[in-house]
Specification:
alpha+beta, 8-stranded mixed sheet, 28 strands, 19% strand, disordered N terminus
């Protein structure tokens, strides 16, 4: 594809090692800079200053000042260069070279080239954030679908880049014991920013961002910046600075409530939000706050009646998530003595009425529901395990609308039953890995020289067909290439829906690229399917599903020579799946032209490529209690959803 080396990302975890005597004193920033510096132009020599007028001049009158400045600069350059040389990424040019002490890239001849190598697109000029305040209202249904799809594709690109970067990082770590782990979210955000793919940079939106729904969950702070929900990567208050405002006064547009200040009080619909500033590096209040920057912006937003978006940062599992909870008005502000004895500004935020239920409330509700479902919802549960212990986790069945208990009348089938001639247990070959499978093993070769999943079992990118390690492989069940065969890993609930009859949702937060479940039933040949369809039985045709797997891992907006995978190639599928008597929870997933679930074909227990299994993966991060939807490849209505098997 026009490039001969794997993608190299800057290690953002590397910092220069300063001598002890030159260690600077760390002080908290008043406000983080709104804009990151633009990347250097193509071909720029790092030895040359970006701003020549700032190059120190050693005049006799101020030689002492500039010579000391130049000495410290040289120490920093030397330390920075030596630190990066430890990681093998750069080297310092010897002194005789005209660009003495320049940091230059070092070709890595030992780097293993993955199955796909890309060249990044030419960087566009990074667009600065506009200071124009706008409010978007009265969107038509087709406009709402357009903006939702735009947000969805942007988030999918972010997640695809993040997962891909992490997978490449894992390969490098396998080859080098000294490689340090880097953050895929920072890499993804930087690539998208440099290619001009951050959203809502041309305007500052007051109120809801079109395409972002209340309850949407974001796993990374940088993702908020990418979609334009909150433009500050560090500060909790996003605002138009006074220097950019048309009337010379700052205006706040969004805040993040995460309990970072000891004087915060979060009551849900009413928030007592503590202003910014006065903390040390350990988060302790050590000085009085000032009415400036973000604090002044909140006060001015209150005066002008400008509402702010509220994003809550919550602990979830072993990490942290950010949930959009809607619009709030600032109704009061005052200066008070905080718990640490220092003066702080407090702002009273009240949620605007007639909005959807807060995502943070739903997140906490689902957490309690996972533990004690009958205590939280005494009425409505028909069964606490629709699978009758056939799945690794129970599948709840909930109906608080009517007395229809139809799903319990079917035999639950966790995986598809294929005809005997497909040969489940026949002779076959597999990898001979005794421990973890490596990227050069037999099964990796069948997949085109790379595994389809990362170390966490997340799908790196969609393919026409994935070969997992099977019964003839010697690798353990914990192998990286055994994901779908382990069964479900999330707690699902089949529920009665007023819109589509039945629906499926999860009680857990599902991260993008995660495996959900198999779409199971009884596999029929085309001849058998023709007879069954004449009897009016429900049939699912695998070949008719929209090829949404092509969208997951699609990074052509960043890398111009990216090509969607075509290997392994598969013939036309010669079977259908009967779900009239035996089925599983996937059968109750409704259709949508804007799906959050994709179908990926997988083989692991036989080698007949004409009869793959239909495995479902998340196309985006799906919050708890949000309905799952598939693109069955059929025409739909304006609402975007249809009942399929109901």
């Amino acid at each position: 594809m026009g490039s001969n080396s794997p993608i190299r990302f800057q290690d953002l975890n590397l910092f220069p090692q300063h001598p002890t005597a030159l260690r600077p004193m760390i002080q908290p920033k008043v406000e983080p800079s709104d804009e990151l510096p633009p990347p250097p132009p193509p071909g720029y020599n790092l030895a040359e200053p970006i701003y020549p007028e700032l190059t120190p001049r050693l005049a006799s009158s101020d030689g002492d000042v500039y010579s000391d400045f130049y000495r410290i600069s040289e120490l920093f350059r030397t330390a920075f260069s030596e630190r990066l040389q430890m990681c093998g990424d750069v080297a310092a040019v010897p002194d005789p070279h005209p660009n003495t002490r320049a940091i230059v890239p070092v070709p890595n001849s030992d780097a293993s080239v993955s199955g796909f190598v890309f060249s990044p697109r030419d960087y566009k000029k990074y667009q600065s954030r506009s200071s124009d305040l706008v409010r978007v209202t009265d969107l038509k249904p087709e406009d709402q679908r357009y903006f939702r799809d735009s947000i969805r594709k942007t988030r999918m690109l972010f997640d695809s880049l993040r997962v891909f970067s992490s997978a490449e990082d894992e390969k490098i770590r396998d080859d080098s014991m000294h490689h340090r782990k880097t953050r895929g979210d920072l890499k993804a955000a930087a690539l998208m920013r440099h290619c001009g793919l951050w959203l809502n940079r041309d305007k500052r939106i007051v109120g809801d961002i079109p395409g972002i729904h209340i309850g949407d969950v974001f796993l990374f702070r940088m993702e908020l910046c990418v979609v334009g929900l909150h433009g500050q990567s560090q500060a909790g208050i996003d605002y138009v600075p006074a220097s950019q405002s048309s009337n010379g006064e700052p205006i706040a547009t969004s805040v993040i409530v995460s309990g970072g200040y000891e004087d915060d009080e979060d009551g849900g619909d009413v928030i007592l939000y503590t202003g910014h500033g006065g903390q040390d590096t350990k988060g302790r209040q050590v000085m009085h706050q000032k009415l400036e920057s973000g604090n002044l912006a909140l006060e001015r937003s209150m005066s002008y009646g400008v509402e702010v978006r509220v994003i809550r940062g919550l602990k979830y599992g072993n990490g942290k998530v950010y949930v959009y909870d809607g619009l709030y008005r600032i109704v009061d502000t005052w200066f008070d003595v905080g718990k640490s004895g220092f003066g702080v500004f407090k702002f009273k935020l009240v949620r605007i009425e007639n909005q959807g239920e807060m995502g943070s409330v739903i997140l906490k509700f689902a957490e309690r529901l996972r533990c004690t479902p009958l205590e939280i919802r005494p009425k409505g549960y028909v069964s606490l395990d629709l699978s009758k212990r056939k799945e690794s986790l129970p599948v709840l069945f909930y109906n608080d609308i009517d007395e229809d208990h139809d799903p319990v009348s079917y035999d639950y089938l966790p995986s598809t039953i294929f005809p005997h001639f497909v040969d489940h247990g026949g002779s076959g070959t597999g990898c001979q890995c005794l421990g973890a499978c490596l990227h050069n093993c037999f099964c990796a070769t069948k997949n085109g020289g790379e595994f389809a999943y990362d170390m966490n079992g997340v799908l790196v990118r969609g393919k026409p067909l994935i070969f997992e390690c099977g019964p003839h492989c010697r690798c353990p069940p914990s192998c990286q290439n055994r994901v779908t065969q382990r069964g479900i890993r999330h707690r699902f609930e089949v529920f009665r829906s007023r819109e589509t009859g039945w629906g499926v949702r999860s009680l857990d937060l599902i991260t993008a690229g995660s495996f959900l479940c198999e779409y199971s039933g009884v596999a029929l040949t085309q001849e058998q399917a023709l007879v069954f369809s004449m009897n009016g039985d429900s049939l699912i045709h695998p070949g008719r599903f929209a090829q949404r797997w092509k969208e997951w891992g699609e990074i052509s907006p960043i890398f111009s020579d990216y090509v969607s995978p075509t290997h392994p190639s598969v013939p036309p599928f010669d079977f259908a799946i009967d779900v009239s008597k035996m089925r599983n929870l996937a059968c109750y997933i409704s259709h949508s032209s804007l799906p959050n679930v994709l179908v990926q074909f997988v083989l692991y227990d036989h080698n007949n490529v004409s009869f793959p299994r239909l495995m479902l993966f998340a196309m985006e991060s799906i919050p708890p209690m949000r309905e799952l939807c598939l693109d069955y490849g059929v025409a739909d209505e304006l609402t975007g959803k249809l009942a399929i098997c109901n």
